[in-house]
């Protein structure tokens, strides 16, 4: 009986440990999604830094360019939660630009992202400008878990 309890406990421990995944692993589950996939967009936004300030989002899918509008409560100068569970201060501009780049790397047909932050003007980013300014293919950000985690760390640390 004692052996059975020990073996059962070990199996349960392994299952619980395997069931946990980081937000970067979860984000990669939505790679190659489309703006029209409301569920994927919502899940991506909820996994990104500053998700705790999310106040909804809207998708424009009737004509190109396809657009995502993300509404946030004001979080300028506030702390955000990062993947390792810690909280830290982050620049509003860095978070918005970084989150845009991650979204563009995951969502195939997203061309423009608007951030509507409570008390501020709308801030917008477009795929072409970000690609040109950073001289890289945005898809490379989410080519694997390590690349995605390194990129998110670069704008949240």
Furnish the topology, listing elements before pairings.
Blueprint lengths: L1 H18 L3 H6 L9 H10 L6 E7 L6 E6 L6 E3 L5 E3 L2 H15 L5 E6 L5 E4 H8 L10 H12 L1
Parallel strand pairs: 2-5
Antiparallel strand pairs: 1-2, 3-4, 5-6
Description of the molecule:
The chain has 157 residues and is α+β, with helices and mostly antiparallel strands. The protein has one domain. It has helices at 2-19, 23-28, 38-47, 92-106, 127-134, 145-156; strands at 54-60, 67-72, 79-81, 87-89, 112-117, 123-126.
**Number of distinct beta strands:** 6
* Rounded mean pLDDT score: 83
Share of residues in strands: 15-25%
- Count of DSSP H/I helices: 6
- Main pleated sheet: 4 strands, mixed
Q: Could you say which structural class the secondary elements and strand pairing correspond to?
A: alpha+beta
Uncertain spans, ≥5 residues at pLDDT below 50? 1-20
Strand order of the largest sheet: 1-2-5-6
> Could you state the order of secondary-structure elements as H and E?
HHHEEEEHEEHH
Radius of gyration: 18 Å
Bin the helical content. Answer: 40-55%
The figure for the number of domains is 1
Q: Compute the separation of the termini in Å.
A: 50 Å
């Amino acid at each position: 009986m004692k052996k059975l309890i020990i073996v059962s406990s070990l199996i349960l421990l392994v299952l619980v440990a395997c069931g946990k995944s980081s937000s970067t692993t979860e984000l990669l589950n939505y790679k190659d999604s489309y703006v029209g996939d409301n569920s994927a967009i919502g899940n991506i936004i909820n996994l990104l830094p500053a998700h705790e300030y999310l106040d909804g989002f809207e998708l424009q899918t009737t004509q190109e360019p396809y657009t995502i509008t993300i509404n946030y409560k004001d979080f300028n100068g506030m702390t955000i939660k990062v993947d390792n569970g810690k909280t830290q201060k982050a620049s509003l501009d860095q978070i918005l630009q970084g989150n845009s780049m991650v979204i563009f790397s995951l969502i195939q047909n997203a061309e423009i992202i608007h951030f509507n932050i409570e008390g501020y003007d709308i801030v917008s980013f477009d795929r072409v400008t970000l690609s040109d300014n950073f001289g890289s293919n945005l898809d490379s950000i989410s080519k694997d878990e390590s690349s995605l985690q390194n990129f998110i760390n670069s704008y949240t640390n």
